[in-house]
Each structure stands twice: as structure tokens, then as C-alpha cells.
Design brief:
By secondary structure, the protein is of the alpha/beta class. It has helices at residues 94-97, 99-102, 114-123, 140-152, 167-173, 189-196, 201-212, 231-244, 269-282, 295-298, and strands at residues 2-3, 7-11, 16-19, 27-28, 39-42, 45-48, 53-54, 56-61, 75-80, 110-111, 128-131, 156-161, 179-183, 216-223, 250-254, 287-290, 300-301, 308-313, 316-320.
Length: 339
């Protein structure tokens, strides 16, 4: 255990604390845990129960995050603990994100130090460390310690996030965070409340703040039939992303039935193509189709002349024709972090 950060005493007499790490801002009674189930109040001191307890350590292509505009073709050392501050009914990683709820509060995982994580990343030839699979904010203390060390060693840090990080933690993390792929799961409070047990506005706020602070942001929307696949909602999402920057990549990805949402079919390919067209017609320069083979929707095109500058197949780079971030045909700039 390690003392948690971003909390304060709420009621000293009752040993009650308030956690400000994420947008839930939980008031936590003595002996109880926050919504994430991995932060526990013990007589007025809040502890991170999952510090260094890694449930997953993998070497992934950076495209799997998905991050398409930072060091394409490179490897990313991916880590996670148990726990999450969302309760998504369609979570593909529910076995670890909901682990404490499924197993009576148990905090599973193998103990690691930040130095061990960074050393493992270097040994594997990874150019980045991704904090992923569950919401990394819930293991913020460990992620931040790893990120500081990685940053000093010249290794990039990547969050794959639901966007519920509190503003104070966001501001502290941003200087050592190279990229953040943030899920914008829908554009209604109904979806966030009923599917994720959360709210929409804090996600919009985090996406905007990360962008303002200079972090390279890519946005992902998993399109679920009957939930967030209408033209109006997809257009609202695209317009919001465009308001950040037309150069912000948008990944529209295929839903597969899982966990508590097995009552609907996988997303039709045509829906994803329609979403991509909506994004492009809104003015976004980079819109990608994911979780299903789609040659047109996987490649990166020069926004000036339309030439293919990066060819992809799934998580693999078939050809990278960029010349120091520029199109070799027209010399136009392609947004991203390429070197």
C-alpha cells in the first residue's frame, strides 16, 4: 500500500475523506473504498491498494492502443492493475477492471517497482510505456512514478483513458505524458449514466484540457448499435473533436457483444464507414476504422494532396512514406509525433 494523492479530509471527527483523483470526487468513510474499489480510507488516510501490483504486462504495437500518430510501428510496454472508475456494461477487460468487485475486494497482481517497469520496457526495445487495459487514473500514483522515470530515460508515456481524470492530476501528468487516447463513448448523459455509471461533461473537460496542455490526443468511439450510432450523435462527437483541432485523430471502432451487453449484434461494417464519412465531412483530417479490416479506414492520408503516407493492416505498418512528418509527394505537414 501507498498513501494516495489528490484527497483531503472531509470530516476529521468521522475520519472521512474526499478523493479528487477523478471526477467522481468520492466521499469515503473510514474503512471504506472509493467507487474504483482500489483506494481505501483507513482512519482518515487514503491508501492506494494497487500500487505496483500489476495484473498485466505486455509488449504491444503502439497501433493497438490505438495511437496512430506517434512513433508508428514502434512497440509499447503496456501495464495495468485491477480496478476501474467506470462500470461499463460492455467492458472487454471486465475480468481485471471489475476484479475487486467480482472477488470480494481482493487486489490481485504481481509486485513491480517503477524501475523494474522501465527496465523491462528498455530491454524489450519499447519506445513507450502505455498505461492501459483498465482506466490508468485508478493506479495514478504508480503510473506517475513510472512515467517520471521513463520520461527521464527518453521513453514516451501514453495513457489509454476514459477521460475521467481530475483536473489537478491531469495538469500534473501532462508535462511527462506524450499521448493520451481518450474514449469519447457517446455524446449523451443517458449513455454515460446507464452504460458506464458516469457523466459526459467531465470527459469532454479532460479531453479539452489534455489538448490545451499540449498532450497529443487521439479520440476513440466504440460504436454500439442502438446506443450511439445515430447520424446526429456521431456528428455531435465529430464536431466536438473538430472544435479541439481538425487534426485530432478519431478512431471509430467495432463493438463486439461481451460482459453484460450481449443483447445486440456486432457493429455492421457499413455503420463504421458511415461514421468515418461523417467525421471527414465534418472537417476532421484523420478518421480511422478499427476492430475490423478496412483498408481505406486504416491508412493515413496526406490532408493536403490525399496521397497515402502510412499503410496499415490491423496493428501492422505495411509502409511508412513520411519524410520527417511531411508528405513525400506535396511536402505538406502531417500532424503527429513521428521521431
Amino acid at each position: 500500500m501507498q498513501e494516495a494523492r489528490f484527497y483531503r479530509i472531509h470530516d476529521a471527527e468521522k475520519h472521512q475523506v474526499r478523493c479528487h483523483l477523478c471526477a467522481h470526487n468520492c466521499i469515503i468513510n473510514n474503512g471504506k473504498r472509493g467507487f474504483c474499489q482500489v483506494r481505501e480510507n483507513r482512519k482518515g488516510t487514503l491508501y492506494s491498494l494497487n500500487y505496483g501490483r500489476l495484473i498485466s504486462e505486455n509488449i504491444d504495437p503502439i497501433e493497438k492502443k490505438p495511437i496512430f500518430h506517434l512513433l508508428p510501428g514502434s512497440l509499447s510496454f503496456s501495464i495495468a492493475t485491477v480496478g476501474c472508475n467506470f462500470r461499463c456494461k460492455h467492458c472487454q477487460n471486465y475480468e481485471i477492471s471489475q476484479y475487486p468487485r467480482l472477488y470480494g475486494g481482493e487486489i490481485a497482481g504481481t509486485m513491480r517497482t517503477p524501475a523494474e517497469v522501465v527496465a523491462a520496457a528498455k530491454e524489450a526495445g519499447c519506445q513507450s510505456i502505455s498505461y492501459t487495459y483498465v482506466e490508468p487514473t485508478i493506479f495514478y500514483e504508480f503510473a506517475y512514478d513510472c512515467a517520471q522515470l521513463a520520461h527521464a530515460e527518453g521513453i514516451r508515456n501514453i495513457f489509454v483513458s476514459n477521460g475521467y481524470t481530475g483536473s489537478a492530476a491531469t495538469r500534473e501528468l501532462a508535462p511527462i505524458l506524450a499521448a493520451n487516447n481518450i474514449d469519447l463513448k457517446a455524446f449523451t448523459d443517458k449513455f454515460y449514466k446507464e452504460v458506464c455509471s458516469a457523466k459526459l461533461q467531465p470527459v469532454l473537460d479532460t479531453i479539452s484540457l489534455m489538448h490545451q496542455l499540449g498532450v497529443w490526443v487521439e479520440v476513440t468511439t466504440l460504436i454500439i448499435p442502438g446506443w450511439n450510432d445515430s447520424d446526429d450523435e456521431l456528428r455531435d462527437i465529430a464536431r466536438f473533436i473538430h472544435s479541439l483541432s481538425p487534426e485530432t485523430p478519431w478512431h471509430v471502432t467495432r463493438f463486439w457483444p461481451t460482459y453484460q451487453m450481449t443483447d445486440r449484434a456486432p457493429t455492421p461494417h457499413e455503420t463504421l464507414r458511415r461514421a468515418r464519412e461523417i467525421g471527414l465531412n465534418t472537417g476532421l483530417k484523420y478518421v480511422y476504422v478499427g476492430n475490423i479490416p478496412d483498408v481505406a479506414g486504416e491508412n493515413t492520408y496526406c490532408p493536403q494532396c490525399g496521397k497515402t503516407v502510412i499503410e496499415r493492416s490491423g496493428f501492422s505498418i505495411l509502409a511508412n512514406r513520411l519524410d520527417h512528418g511531411h508528405c513525400p509527394a506535396c511536402k505538406g505537414k502531417v500532424a503527429g509525433v513521428w521521431e
